[in-house]
Structures are given as C-alpha cells and as structure tokens.
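Teaching assistant here, posting this on the class forum so everyone can see the example we discussed in section. The complex has two components, and the goal was to see what a joint structure prediction looks like when all of them are supplied at once.
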Amino acid sequence: MAAVPADWRDYLRLLKPRVMSLVVFTALTGLVCAGAPMNPALAAIAILCIAVGAGASGALNMWYDADIDAVMKRTRGRPVPAGRVRATDALTMGVVLSLFSVTLMGLAVNLLAAGLLAFTIFFYAVVYTMWLKRSTPQNIVIGGLAGALPPAVGWAAASGTAPWNAWLLVAIIFVWTPAHFWALSLSTGEDYAKAGVPMMPVVRGPDSTRRQILAYSLLLAPLAVVPAFTGLGGAVYLAIAALGGVVFVALAIRLLLAKADMEKKARGLFGFSILYLFGLFAALLGEHLAGLAPLALLR
Amino acid sequence: MSDPKSEQPAWAKARRGRNILLAIGLVAFVIVVFIATLARLGGNVATHGF
C-alpha cells in the first residue's frame, strides 16, 4: 500500500485529461461540421460520452502499462506505478466508464456513434496498448487510428452518418500522428529503450526516424489542404492549412538535416505539430460556427 | 485482517472523498439520462398526433 492515499486528482489523472481535451475538441469539430440540426442537450451528452470514453481508454492504458510506466521518467509519477491507485481499480474504472459511455451514446444519440465510440476504445485499449505498443515500431502508426477517430464519432452523433468528409478529418489526424509522436520520442528515446518499447527511434535509429517524419510531413501538408476542395473548409482554413503545412515540412527538413541540437529541433517540431493540428480544427470549427461559406473549389 | 494503514485518519478521509465522488457521479448519470429522455421524447411527443 502507498504511503499517501489516493485522492480525486489521482482518479482524474487516470483519465488522461490532456488527451481527453484534444479528443473533445476534434470530436466537437466533427459534430459541428456535420451541419445537421441537433438538440443542444443531446449534443452536450454526445460530447460527454466521447470525453468519458476517451478517459476510459486512458484508465485501461494506465492499468495495462503500469510496468512500462514505472520504468520511464515521463510516466513513473502516474497514479498506478506510483502506488497511489491499485491497478485493478484503474481496470474497473476503465471498464465501467467504457460501458457507461457507449451505452449512453447508443440510447441517447444513435447506434452508429455508439459503435464508433466502442471501436475507438477497443482499438486504443486492446489493439494499440495490449498488442501493437510492445510488438512493432509501427505501433503508433496503426494505433494512431484510435486518436484519429473522434471527429467521425462526433459527425456520426450529429447526423447518424459518416461521409467522406468525416473520414478526411480522421485521415488528417492519422497521418499527423507519426510525425508528432516520433518527434516526441526522439527526445525521450532512452526512456522507451529502457522500458523495452519498440518505438521507431529505438528500433531503427534517429536517422531513419527523421526520414520517416519528413515522409509523413510531405503526405500531411497536401492532405490537410484537401478539405478546402471538398466543401468542408473555407478561406481561413485554406490559409492555415497551406501556411502551416509549409512550416511543418520546413521544420521536418530542419530536423532531418540537424547535425547538432537534434533533440531541441525535435521538440520544436513536436510543439508546432500540436499548434498546427489545433489551428486546422479551430479554423473549421470557427468557420462553421460563424456560418462562413466553405470554398468547395471542386464543386 | 484489515490493513492498519487503511484505518488511519488520512486513509479514512481519502476513502470518504472517493465515496462522495462516486455518489456525485452516479447522481450526475441519473440526471444525464433524465435530460436525454426528455430531449428525445420531447421531439417525438411534439410530433405525435392525438
């Protein structure tokens, strides 16, 4: 038993509130971009279910990964490895919150949104955490789908459908994830090596990782502009996507060519990647809430 | 046999805090279900012919 008893903050930490806030933000963008009229109370409940579902995934991840978290500097203070919360309590919390969030989404909103939410939780907790994370350097590439799905869940909650534009938002986050995570793991590579997690910089080395970061950046920059051509994004979105994409690729090239201060440049790209994704989704959200007409350049 | 640590005031206080949080969570869930029911039924009742 730990020296200090757990309080409510430890249980909140199990839900990974920072990850949850990004999930809520992208899901809200999907919900608003769907453009379907929705009862505000049901919209709030849908977002609540998505937030709780994301928190449940976090708790399940902390339950299963407690052994890894205990070894890594960045995560050893988490409630389970620190001994403040029992692993079985984290598991119980994760399972109960998963059931509550999916059931409520199905009963109050619709079955498609509930199904997508259940799949997202399953993919993060089982496919990524239990299987991919410890077995392949492609762990965050494939596992990134879990973090990419919330806009589709939000879109489905509002409209009961998941059209191409919803999956376009999913694709943007999916392609953004490897560059974002590998930039982070370039500066914490030793931590992952110590824990035996086969992150790309540990398995293939920093040079290969930097090349792959650039490859994903080159894929992401044009992909992020596409919503301006499909009736989703407007002029503000197009400007942010185009300018941000150029900066993203430039930072990836700077990282690739770095002879010194590689970790500092990796952290720079990591920081910008968050700002860039936030900018893209904030632009879409702002344009749709303000009723600004999308460009629809191909229509 | 109970763990002597769990009988200490700090632990008892923490346990009480967790129980209160759990109770608040359950009440919040009931309220959310109630609101969801009103929101869903409201539209259907309004369009229902008598």
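For the discussion questions: Chain A has 14 helices and no strands. Chain A touches chain B at residues 1, 4-8, 11, 39, 41-42, 45, 48, 100, 104, 107-108 (CB under 8 Å). Think about how each of these relates to the inputs above.
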